[in-house]
Design brief:
Length: about 200
């Protein structure tokens, strides 16, 4: 069974390089991932006053992330940090307090840029948010995709054959393994606690 992966792209640009990288990942075969891109451009800015009566776009976004087994962030870097539109989506999904749809979901982060350091700053700011969101983030391979340009893609908007596509393919396979490990570990822990609870109940019977 393939794992359902919500891909959140941190760029609204029609010809976004990061969207094309995300599309390429969606198009990979044999990696056990069933990817879909979750739109974030229509999300009203997060405002805690609206928690009791949330906009329908927030509800739609939260439901889409909640239905996924894992989350893949695919984002540019803006001024060495997370683009505001992505930070807004993260904030929307993280609230109301105690009801974050990101909680415990395995995650991976890809950043792509025409620049040479491949969105390193943005990548690590997303990683920092994931710590607070309680998301187990895949550590390796890291994916700071530098020197990405329109020329990196074919007419269908997917990565051309070459080292960049190879790296993204390795990442997608590693992420499938990561999601499997996290979900399986969580299931085993739940079974252990259920067993321990049964034993305790027997002892007290
Ligand atoms: C507001 C803004 C800030 C940017 N800051 C950075 C930056 O800090 N580092 C970087 O590598 N590129 C930066 N860029 C260039 C982006 O990497 C480039 O525009 C890229 O194509 C954006 O990603 P996208 O193609 O997915 O939309 C910036 C672009 C914009 C519009």
């Amino acid at each position: 069974m393939a794992y359902k992966i919500a891909i959140i792209v941190g760029s609204l640009r029609k010809d976004s390089l990061n969207r094309k990288v995300a599309r390429s990942i969606c198009g990979l075969r044999g990696d056990n991932l069933d990817c879909s891109m979750i739109e974030i451009g229509d999300l009203p800015l997060y405002n805690q006053d609206l928690d009791s009566n949330p906009p329908e776009q927030w509800t739609r976004f939260r439901q889409q992330v909640a239905a996924a087994d894992g989350v893949l962030f695919c984002s540019p870097e803006y001024n060495r940090g997370i683009p505001g539109v992505l930070k807004n989506a993260i904030d929307v999904g993280s609230r109301p307090y105690g009801q974050s749809v990101f909680d415990k979901k395995p995650a991976a982060i890809v950043t792509a840029s025409p620049g040479s350091i491949g969105g390193f700053g943005s990548n690590h700011q997303i990683r920092q948010a994931c710590v607070f969101l309680n998301m187990p983030v895949m550590q390796q391979p890291e994916a700071y995709l530098g020197h990405v340009t329109d020329d990196s893609f074919d007419e269908s908007g997917c990565l051309k054959e070459g080292p960049l596509k190879d790296l993204v393919t390795v990442l997608a396979h590693a992420f499938a393994g990561w999601v499997e490990m996290i979900l399986r570990s969580r299931q085993l822990l739940a079974e252990d606690s259920a067993h321990a609870a049964q034993q305790k109940a027997k002892e007290h019977a």
